[in-house]
Amino acid sequence: MQIDDIRQRLQSHGAGATHIHAVVRAWTQARSLDSGGQLPANYFPARLLAVLPSIETALAAIARLRSAHAGGDDSRRLLIELADGQTVESVLLPREAVCVSTQVGCAVGCVFCMTGREGLARQLGSAEIVAQVVLARHMRTVRKVQFMGMGEPAHNLDNVCAAIALLGTAGGFAHKNLVFSTVGDLRVFDRLPREQVKPALALSLHSTNAQLRARLLPRAPRINPADLVDLGENYARATGYPIQYQWTLLEDINDGDDEVAGIARLLAGKYAVMNFIPWNSVSGLDFRRPTRERALTMVRVLREHGVLATVRDSAGQDVEGGCGQLRARAVAATLKA
To answer: Do the Cβ atoms of 229 and 267 come closer than 8 Å?
Structure first.
């Protein structure tokens, strides 16, 4: 389902450009499509007004909540069912944010991620991406959207950019609060600066060693970490948003002093923040989380070198709901049925 499909359906019922904008804006902001009586009674054509309830029902069916799993950190892992029965994951995060998926599965194959083990099933349409945000807004206040759920947004670039454009206009989100996450697909650095709504950028780094990074992200673009940082810095300076570097911490793999020195070398003086995320345990994988003390030591050393760094726990770890685990369990249950 695409955003243009919604516009065309509205148009087929007599909606003009202003009517379409009003309905789409109400949908993206999780309000009644007729704006709850805030518009004049004769604002919409009678033919359109008559079908708004059925359109509202159809929009609600784009992404439906199958199950919700509350974490002790005020997060909620959501298993979302799409119209064709496929499922994806969204996460309601603390501090009025939501993390949404852009694909059913993922083709990058990060070795520490359940989604990467499952492979790619299909792309999400632009409306399916937005619908996850709408669903989240019906559940709580949402002021920030992170495109960091299942999938690699750069592999679904047209649909993700269309979703970002709508959320940054009709949806009312500040552009800096729309965060596009990528492993470093070069198309991102060409496309995003040309978009009307330019999102903030998060780059999955995970190692400053090119060979190790290639092993951890086996189907990511083969780009030297230093070159990736240079591309990120150019985007940060052009947009005025710092780059958010993502680093999944794996004990005795990418948490050593050599990596800390490498990060300090690459990011000192850069408009950037390093987000360390201790690994979210996935059944069947042999990786381990470093101790929190080790993670905090890495942060302290980097700050001493002038690099802004933080430790962020993956939301919902206590419900074993991260990295595609909810979807994996749902798929397994379906196969057993």
So the answer is: yes
| Token reading at 177 | 């609060």
Q: Which residue has the tokens 């007599």?
A: 14
In this prediction, residue 326 carries a pLDDT of: 54
Alpha-carbon span 158 to 103, nearest angstrom: 12
User: Over 60: is that where the pLDDT of 106 sits?
Assistant: yes
Catalytic residue list:
89, 323
Q: For residue 15, what are the contacts with CB-CB under 8 A and spacing of at least 6?
A: 23, 44, 45, 48
Per-residue pLDDT tens for 197-243?
999 999 999 999 999 999 999 999 999 999 999 999 999 999 999 99
CA–CA separation, 189 vs 196, rounded Å?
A: 14
Radius of gyration over every alpha carbon of the chain, rounded to an integer in angstroms: 21
The stretch 259-265 carries a mean pLDDT of 97
Residue reference for tokens 């989380």: 289
For the chain, what is the mean pLDDT?
91
Residue 318: pLDDT band by 50, 70, 90 thresholds? very low
Instruction: Report the DSSP beta bridge partners of residue 178.
Output: 145
Residue type, 252: D
Measured torsion, CA atoms of residues 232, 233, 238, 240, in degrees rounded to the nearest 10: 100
The answer to whether 58 and 10 have CB atoms below 8 angstroms apart is: no
The structure tokens listed for 207 are 């190692």
